[in-house]
Amino acid sequence: MNRPEIVCLCGSTRFFKAFDEQNTNLTLDGKIVLSIGCHTQDDKNLKLPPEQIMMLIELHRRKIDMCDYILVINVDGYIGKHTQAEIKYAKQCGKPIRYLEG
């Protein structure tokens, strides 16, 4: 078996159902899926200290480093500031970017 494609899901944690659906669909399509670490609640509800937020941002960037492309979970066209930063980082790394919607 050849190495499966690796995809990193990026988007707002408010769309956790879309993250779950894409994780399932892509996995069943034979891809390795890297995703957000906690999708049981919105990031704001976690009330994390700033240093932990920065650690999570860096951790997600490492996932982008590992992937073959990113899939932006942009339900209803929404792309928040953290996702915009992830898209910018992926572009800087030369990673292809795909969008769930449009």
**Strand order in space, largest sheet:** 2-1-3-4
In whole angstroms, the N-to-C terminal distance is 32 Å
Low-confidence stretches: none
Q: CATH top level?
A: Alpha Beta
Write down the domain tally: 1
Rounded radius of gyration (Å): 13 Å
Count all strands and give the number: 4
> In the CATH classification, which architecture applies?
3-Layer(aba) Sandwich
The biggest sheet, with number of strands, parallel, antiparallel or mixed sense and barrel status, is: 4 strands, parallel
User: Could you spell the SSE succession in H and E letters?
Assistant: EHEHHEHE
CATH fold category name: Rossmann fold
| Continuous helix count | 4
What labels would you give this structure?
102 residues, alpha/beta, Rossmann fold, 4-stranded parallel β-sheet, 4 helices, 4 strands
Description:
It is a single chain. This protein has 102 residues and is α/β, with parallel strands linked by helices. The protein has one domain (6-96): 3-Layer(aba) Sandwich (Rossmann fold), CATH 3.40.50. The protein has four helices and four strands. A four-stranded parallel beta sheet has the order 2-1-3-4, with helices on both faces. α3 (50-66) packs parallel to α4 (81-92). The mean pLDDT is 90.
Please outline the helices and strands:
Elements: E1 6-11, H1 16-28, E2 32-34, H2 43-46, H3 50-66, E3 69-73, H4 81-92, E4 97-99
Parallel strand pairs: 1-2, 1-3, 3-4
